[in-house]
Amino acid sequence: MAEFGSKSLSRLATLDGRLVDVVTLAIVIYDFSVLSTHRTMHEQNDLYETGFSKKKFPDSKHNIYPSKAVDIAPYPVDWEDELRFYYLAGVIEACAHGIGVRLRWGGDWDSDDDLHDQTFMDLGHYELID
């Protein structure tokens, strides 16, 4: 059974409790790392400038405290292995549904189950739908 490492645990401390509940359920099913939760203005704008985010500070759900967004990746991280990100998305969405947490995933922004109509793929991103 997988468990969070120290870096992932420290990042979870800045995450909304509902998302903490989801990822805590998911980690026992599939191993992954928590890469990003709350972001400062500098962090968010750097990601925007480099094209890794479509949002400037303070418009990302990562900029709220506690963060309403989390970025995760299957462990060990291999950005080229997209299938593992899709598998992880199924685990995360099932865990969220099971406890009544509504999420949006960066691989299906409009939540229409059409994975081919996205203009920006962010396969490791999950955010709360309030």
Topology:
Layout: H1 6-12, H2 17-27, E1 32-36, H3 41-49, E2 69-74, H4 82-98, E3 103-105, E4 125-128
Helix pairs in contact: 2-4
SSE sequence, one letter per element: HHEHEHEE
The parts where pLDDT drops under 50 for at least 5 residues are none
Overall structural class, as computed from helix and strand content, comes to alpha+beta
> Helix count, per DSSP?
4
Instruction: Choose one word for the global shape.
Output: globular
What do the pLDDT scores average to?
Answer: 97
Number-wise, the strands total: 4
Strand content: 5-15%
Number of domains: 1
* Biggest sheet, spatial arrangement of strands: 1-2-4-3
Largest sheet: 4 strands, antiparallel
Helicity level: 25-40%
Q: Provide the CATH top-level class.
A: Alpha Beta
CATH architecture: 2-Layer Sandwich
Q: Care to describe what's here?
A:
By secondary structure, the protein is of the alpha+beta class. The protein has a single domain, classed as Muramoyl-pentapeptide Carboxypeptidase, domain 2. It has four helices and four strands, in the order ααβαβαββ. It has helices at residues 6-12, 17-27, 41-49, 82-98; strands at 32-36, 69-74, 103-105, 125-128. A four-stranded antiparallel β-sheet has the order 1-2-4-3. Helix 2 (17-27) crosses helix 4. The chain is globular. The N and C termini lie far apart (31 Å). The relative contact order is 0.18.
Task: Give a short overview.
This protein is α+β, with helices and mostly antiparallel strands and 130 residues long. 34% of the residues lie in helices and 14% in strands.
